[in-house]
Amino acid sequence: MNGGDSRKKAAEPVKEAVETSYIIQPFDRTNLSTLMAIEDYASAAPFPHLVIDNLFNARALDRVLDEWPNVKTADLIHHNDGTYSKDKYASTYRTQYGAYSRFFLTCLGEPLFLEALERVTGIVGLIPDPYWRGGGLHFTRAGGRLAVHADFNKHFKYQLDRRLNLIVYLNHGWTDENQGWLELWDREMKSCVKRILPVFNRTVIFSTTDFSYHGQPEPIQGPPDMFRRSLALYYYSNGRPAEEVSGRDPGATLWQRRPGVGY
């Protein structure tokens, strides 16, 4: 009997090693070097931002898609007020994430990734949000939209300053016919300066200020079971330049009307 127990215990480390070998790392140092080599972040219009394709391991993103929650999953937020948002779903820290999805999101808050973000954006002292407040998994059904806005600028618990948004799109086969672009608008809300199609493994990073107006105001076009999926994470710092804020309620979202068409 004892001999059998010994053989079982000896086999356990081998089994663990085999399972570990199947972990897919979301990114490597080559990916981070490519990110850090981008030089025009601060000068991008209409506000500091970058768009980069294939920053992450495609197999890792597909693994996240394999775990994607159903709209009926508990502890999702359904944004559907009819004016600013329509049929957008978002996770919360209480959502039951898949094991790999949680691993992926956690990796985006580790030191090597934070250092890469600091290098490319010039924002030092970035802090990830352990609550993934407003971030995590986002998905919007066909016909859904999100009005142009500037985000809340303080962490709800720590009162840290929100400085950076990171969005990773996970939409295979997405085309202009499906619409649902991320739109970046100028500070005066006179025009959309840039449209970004939410195709698979496209990452958008931009500075979060009271004037970084963005959104997905054009409804998604496609069959009822089509969703626009993304990962979103927000990064904070202790302090920020005074010119980035307007003195408004730091916990509020600043919704903006588009000229001639409204929200």
Q: Helical residue percent?
A: 10-25%
Class, according to the CATH hierarchy? Mainly Beta
Give the end-to-end Cα distance, rounded to a whole number of Å: 73 Å
Structural class: alpha+beta
Q: How many discrete domains?
A: 1
Task: Calculate the mean pLDDT score and round it.
Answer: 92
What's the total helix number? 5
Q: Biggest sheet, open or closed, and with what strands and sense?
A: 12 strands, antiparallel
Low-confidence stretches: 1-21
Shape: globular
C-alpha Rg, in Å?
A: 20 Å
Mind telling me which CATH architecture this is?
Sandwich
How large a portion of the residues is in β-strands, by DSSP E? 25-35%
What's the SSE pattern? HHEHEEHHEEEEEEEEE
- Number of β-strand runs: 12
Identify the CATH homologous superfamily. Answer: q2cbj1_9rhob like domain
CATH topology tier name: Jelly Rolls
Write structural notes for this entry.
The chain is of the alpha+beta class. It has a single domain (27-255), classed as Jelly Rolls (Sandwich). The chain contains five helices and twelve strands. It has helices spanning 2-20, 29-36, 58-66, 99-107, 111-121; strands spanning 49-53, 76-79, 85-91, 127-128, 136-150, 161-169, 182-185, 192-196, 202-207, 214-216, 227-237, 254-255. Strands 1, 2, 3, 4, 5, 6, 7, 8, 9, 10, 11 and 12 form a twelve-stranded antiparallel β-sheet that branches. Helix 2 packs parallel to helix 5. The chain is globular and about 50 Å long.
